[in-house]
Amino acid sequence: MNMLPDGADALRKAVFDTLHRIAPEVLPDELESGVPLRDQVDLDSMDWLNFLLGLHAGLGVDIPEADYMKLVTLDDLFSYLEAKLGQSSVRR
Fold first, then answer.
1. pLDDT tens-place string over residues 50-76
2. 32 inside domain
3. Measuring CA to CA, which residue among 62, 71, 70, 88 is closest to residue 9?
């Protein structure tokens, strides 16, 4: 079940709130949407897993382990979550 209010801004906020819990030093405005997110915020594999699990818990979106490799950049992540949630046009 989708636990997120409708809207691109709400999705963006949920993603960055989840990221902030894992890496509080990260400033969303400094992230580049087409660059690998793990490289930009220096997340190790456990942090990355906790981030994806946090998105699952917060958004109610299943993210199977087989899809982890598809989620490299913010663009990838937002496109994937939009498709799962049935939303479109997440502003970055």
1. 999 999 999 999 999 999 999 999 999
2. yes
3. 88
Look up the domain containing 37 and give its range: 8-85
Q: In sequence order, what E strands does the chain have?
A: none
Confirm whether 74 is domain-assigned: yes
Half-sphere exposure of 6 (CA within 13 A, CB side): 2
Distance from C-alpha of 59 to C-alpha of 32, rounded to nearest angstrom? 23
Here the CATH number for the domain that contains residue 32 is 1.10.1200.10
Which of these, 87, 45, 86, 50, lies nearest to 69 by C-alpha position? 45
Q: What is the pTM of this model?
A: 0.82
Report the chain's mean pLDDT, rounded to a whole number: 87
Q: How many domains does the chain have?
A: 1
